[in-house]
Automatic annotation (TrEMBL):
GO terms for biological process: branched-chain amino acid catabolic process. The gene is vdh. InterPro entries: Aminoacid_DH-like_N_sf, Glu/Leu/Phe/Val/Trp_DH, Glu/Leu/Phe/Val/Trp_DH_C, Glu/Leu/Phe/Val/Trp_DH_dimer, Glu/Leu/Phe/Val_DH_AS, Glu/Phe/Leu/Val/Trp_DH_bac/arc, NAD(P)-bd_dom_sf. NAD(+) binds at residues 191-196. This is Valine dehydrogenase. The lineage of its organism: Bacteria, Bacillati, Actinomycetota, Actinomycetes, Kitasatosporales.
């Protein structure tokens, strides 16, 4: 059974009745002149205006797009709460192949829809949208961030994302080995794109040895050429990377689902801390990690540097102020490990608990 939007009834059931739902508002947007079809999902404004990027993706169905928007918006509530931002969670998806349907007119039409929400939702870049696109959206909508520095924006958010992941690694080292320094540690990075290549630099500056892999040979070549001192080596693929002997930390920085029933048994690292979203392939993996004695720094906590960067832009971007806030990911990660220990739960569950507490307190104080 489907409703008039093509969204199956189970999506609406998720929205109104399940634990995964509870969203405040979902907006379906259409502009036939430009071909725009978008879904804006606002999960929570308990901590402030919902903040989250716009994903532009050729979804197999409109129902899949709605489900993705709901899921991503909910994730942003938790991420923003743990990042200490005064923002709730929201996300938008534009349905279609950006290479085919993206146009200036479509982005302007999208900007008008976001503007119509009057600041309840603040948008930014995500998969399929870029800084240049946000510059266009911003012409119609003042609640746009992730713009170019020439337009008063923070630019590429991967700079502070990598810095935040590095802080998460330092906290993991402190928790596990009693010293935040990564000197002499062996760190494996799967995916050396925008975030991964900055992460290599932080790690080398701290004296860590790094092993990398990427499906793109040019990405690997670029890193090896930038670090010719022998401190960075490459392996063929992620399967080889996670089996590397003596690996201290594994950093998934490519796609989601890196931690699964297949990868856990062969993982040699004692810590997992990386930028990729949704690293746990399914619920329960966080417990399997803990049972195997692997310390997991929750993905949405350590990769929040990017959202911290774009949130700062709303106050007139100040890189040093944003960097200082991203540095707090170190303390936040340590606090999660402490809570996990005291409550006897995995760190991922501890992070969720702390985020839910912060949102509940904000709701009560209203
Ligand atoms: N950029 C940000 O600010 C930011 C913020 C939060 C989370 N993230 C997440 O971090 C991850 C990396 O983001 P990015 O901006 O660096 O993306 P990116 O596309 O620039 O880099 C990803 C890299 O991973 C490589 N890759 C893809 N599949 C792979 C595989 N199977 N094995 C090895 N390498 C593979 C790609 O070739 C690419 O070089 C993504 O999951 C993203 O969602 C990014």
């Amino acid at each position: 059974m489907t409703d008039v939007t093509g969204a199956p009834a189970d999506v609406l059931h998720t929205l109104f009745h399940s634990d995964q739902g509870g969203h405040e508002q979902v907006v379906l947007c259409q502009d036939r002149a430009t071909g725009l079809k978008a879904v804006i999902a606002i999960h929570s404004t308990a901590l402030g205006p919902a903040l989250g990027g716009t994903r532009f993706y050729p979804y197999a169905s409109e129902a899949e797009a709605v489900a993705d928007a709901l899921n991503l918006a909910r994730g942003m509530s938790y991420k923003n709460a743990m990042a200490g931002l005064d923002h709730g969670g929201g996300k938008a998806v534009i349905i279609g192949d950006p290479d085919i349907v993206k146009s200036e007119e479509l982005l302007l039409a999208y900007g008008r829809f976001v503007a119509s929400l009057g600041g309840r939702y603040v948008t930014a870049c995500d998969v399929g949208t870029y800084v240049a696109d946000m510059d266009v959206v911003a012409r119609e909508c003042r609640w746009t961030t992730g713009r170019s520095p020439e337009n008063g924006g923070a630019g590429d958010s991967s700079v502070l994302t990598a810095f935040g992941v590095y802080q998460g690694m330092r906290a993991s080292a402190q928790h596990l080995w009693g010293d935040p320094s990564l000197r002499g540690r062996l760190v494996g990075i799967a995916g050396v794109g925008k975030v991964g290549h900055h992460l290599v630099r932080h790690l080398r500056e701290d004296g860590a040895e790094v092993v990398i892999t990427d499906v793109r040979e040019d990405a690997v070549r670029r890193i090896l050429a930038t670090h010719p001192d022998g401190g960075v080596t490459a392996v063929a693929d992620t399967a080889a990377l996670i089996r590397t002997e003596g690996l201290d930390i594994y950093a998934p920085c490519a796609l989601g689902g890196a931690l699964s029933d297949d990868t856990l048994p062969v993982l040699t690292a004692k810590v997992v801390c990386g930028a990729a979203n949704n690293q746990l392939a399914h619920p329960g993996v966080e417990k399997d990690l803990a049972d195997r004695g692997i310390l997991y720094a929750p993905d949405y906590v350590v990769n929040a540097g990017g959202v911290i960067q774009v949130a700062d832009e709303l106050h007139g971007f100040d890189f040093e102020r944003a960097r200082a806030k991203a540095a707090k990911i170190y303390d936040t990660t340590l606090a999660i490990f402490a809570r996990a220990k005291s409550d006897g739960i995995p760190p991922a569950a501890a992070a969720d608990r702390i985020a839910e507490q912060r949102m509940a307190e904000a709701r009560r104080s209203r």
